[in-house]
């Protein structure tokens, strides 16, 4: 297939996917999963949907934590120091434990919905070694906090270009409840006022996200979905010897990787860490391809050096220039296998300002996707899989 023909093939599928309104753990997400199964079937692959029970948002658990920060700050202002400390500690703990790969205890008592993971197995089912290629097919809610004017304004300062690690955007979110707890302990009204201000703004941001519509999600993460479809086509036509390949498109990624977490609970026990390699693809339609060095909302989890070396060497041999040494204070589906001990890489993309293009905004449509970068992500993923078939890399 020529480059021009491939782009037409990819674009047609991306345009079809972006027309599906697909919030995490919704009927639309299930429709997208069924669409993907149909596309894989048309290619000649067998695929199935695994249904998992999840909560389906992040604004509720985080918003409950920030609301506790508001109440804690107000309690400190009125002299109820014990209540302020207790509310602040609860709010900070609720937020901190909700970030992947934490235990997320608050979600256990919140309403539940069903999410849909798409699984397609290729190659040798009896092979000792397995490569899992990951995307997600749900799309994110928008919100004022994601307004593209904000990073554009910040980029004028040159801060983004000077940074190799994205800002810790969740610091003020958890900072409000922490300040409320400290205000209660110390009886400090200035800390209490700061706690209220931070927690009110964070709670408002969560509420705003919750009431917004879902975005088309072409770049994030329709680009990885269509990449998996093309990889399936390639591996069916020319399967790597001695390798089992699992294509996983997870649901509920936009609710803090709940679909990927559920996949792990179901499948990690039968996927040994010394013979399974994860390649996560997320938002691969911005102008510059990158392989993340690390990620994490609060704590930074670094990707294993041998897995990164494989990606870097393969990209160099293919003539693909990667945006170097980029870490994010955010989370992708790569976090779950990474922190479970698997050799893992996350292939992503960014703008010149080291930000994902059109992130969580209504202009995240196929017309704004850089298909050259998508093709680079596909070529890099395929080449890494074929190298792993010949020479394994452990974590």
Tell me the number of helical segments per DSSP (H or I, 4 or more residues long).
13
Order of helices and strands: HHEHHEEHHHHHEHEEEEHEHEH
Widest sheet: strand order?
A: 1-2-4-3-5-10-6
Name the shape in a single word. globular
Quaternary structure classification: single chain
Average pLDDT, rounded to a whole number, is 96
Largest β sheet strand count, sense and barrel closure: 7 strands, mixed
Structural class: alpha/beta
Estimate the helix proportion, in percent. Answer: 40-55%
CATH class of the largest domain: Alpha Beta
Describe it for me?
The chain is of the alpha/beta class. It folds into 2 domains: 3-57 and 112-142 and 214-390, Zn peptidases (Aminopeptidase, 3-Layer(aba) Sandwich), CATH 3.40.630.10; 60-107 and 167-210, no CATH class. It is 47% helix and 14% strand. It has 13 helices and 10 strands. The protein has helices at residues 3-18, 27-43, 59-77, 81-96, 149-155, 159-162, 171-186, 189-211, 218-237, 258-267, 305-318, 335-339, 371-390; strands at 47-54, 113-123, 130-136, 244-250, 276-281, 288-291, 294-295, 301-302, 327-328, 344-350. A 7-stranded mixed sheet has the order 1-2-4-3-5-10-6, with helices on both faces. A hairpin with a 5-residue loop joins strand 7 (294-295) and strand 8 (301-302). Helix 2 packs parallel to helix 9.
């Amino acid at each position: 297939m020529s480059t021009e023909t491939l782009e037409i093939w990819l674009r047609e599928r991306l345009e079809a996917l972006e027309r599906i309104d697909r919030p995490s753990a919704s009927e639309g997400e299930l429709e997208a999963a069924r669409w993907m199964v149909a596309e894989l079937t048309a290619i000649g692959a067998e695929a199935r949907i695994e249904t998992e029970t999840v909560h389906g948002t992040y604004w509720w658990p985080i918003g409950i934590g920030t609301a506790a920060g508001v109440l804690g700050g107000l309690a400190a202002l009125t002299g109820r120091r014990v209540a302020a400390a207790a509310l602040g500690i609860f709010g900070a703990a609720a937020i901190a434990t909700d970030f992947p790969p934490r235990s997320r205890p608050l979600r256990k008592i919140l309403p539940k919905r069903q999410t849909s993971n798409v699984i397609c197995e290729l190659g040798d089912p009896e092979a000792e070694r397995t490569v899992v290629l990951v995307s997600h097919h749900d799309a994110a809610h928008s919100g004022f906090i994601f307004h593209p004017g904000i990073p554009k304004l910040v980029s004028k300062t040159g801060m983004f270009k000077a940074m190799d690690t994205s800002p810790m955007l969740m610091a003020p979110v958890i900072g409000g409840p922490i300040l409320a707890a400290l205000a209660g302990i110390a009886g400090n009204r200035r800390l209490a006022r700061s706690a209220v201000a931070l927690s009110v703004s964070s709670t408002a941001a969560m509420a705003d996200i919750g009431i917004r519509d879902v975005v088309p999600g072409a770049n994030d993460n329709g680009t990885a979905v269509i990449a998996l479809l093309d990889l399936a086509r390639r591996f069916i036509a020319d399967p790597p010897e001695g390798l089992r390949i699992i294509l996983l498109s997870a649901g509920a990624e936009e609710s803090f990787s709940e679909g990927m977490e559920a996949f792990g609970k179901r499948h990690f026990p039968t996927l040994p860490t010394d013979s399974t390699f994860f390649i996560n693809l997320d938002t691969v339609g911005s102008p510059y391809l990158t392989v993340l060095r690390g990620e994490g909302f609060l704590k930074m989890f670094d990707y294993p050096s041998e897995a990164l070396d494989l990606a870097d060497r393969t990209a160099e041999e293919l003539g693909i220039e990667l945006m170097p040494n980029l870490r994010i204070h955010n989370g992708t589906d790569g976090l779950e296998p990474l922190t479970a001990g698997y050799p893992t890489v996350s292939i992503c993309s960014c703008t010149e300002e080291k930000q994902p293009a059109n992130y969580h905004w209504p202009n995240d449509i196929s017309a704004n996707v850089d298909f050259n970068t998508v093709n680079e992500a596909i070529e890099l993923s395929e080449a890494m899989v074929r190298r792993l078939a010949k020479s394994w890399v452990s974590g």
